[in-house]
Amino acid sequence: MSTTNSNIQDCEPQIMPPGAIILLNSRNPEIGKVTFPERKSKGLLPPFVEAYYNKEDDSLSVNAIVYVDLDRKENESFAYSVYQNCYVDVNGNPQLQFFIAYNMLEQDATTFSIHELKFKVNKDIFIGKLADVKTIQTFLWDTDPIASRGTETNVQPG
Hints:
Low-confidence stretches: 1-9
Mean pLDDT: 84
Number of strands: 11
Oligomer: single chain
Order of helices and strands: EEEEEEEEEEE
Distance between the termini: 33 Å
Structural class: mainly beta
Strand content: over 45%
Strand order of the largest sheet: 3-7-8-10-11-5-6-9-4
Helix content: under 10%
Largest sheet: 9 strands, mixed
């Protein structure tokens, strides 16, 4: 269940994503920029995600590239938290979702900063076996609460 927090800095309500926080208030510098000159939407761009299962240590790691329109100062980093959620699909299989949560204003944008995020699944809060996970869902979640955008990714065996 999502919760609502009040952002003291700008006094707008925030809707937090479901799940448990596995990475809190992380910061990543920009690794590049990309421009979509014909883009006319205020919506978020979906993240590019790869997931890898390592049978040696029974771990699942996630690498995500996110595209964010940030109105920020030079050299300011992208601040975010990652939430891990587990649900059971219609076939009774436990599934994983990840929400990369941050707060920013929506505005028309054609140029986006690129950020690389890496994190590992917290297997202590997953009800299934990581070796059985075939796909994950990863969402970019703006907490302000206008938008979120996601993608489904195949887990590559190790």
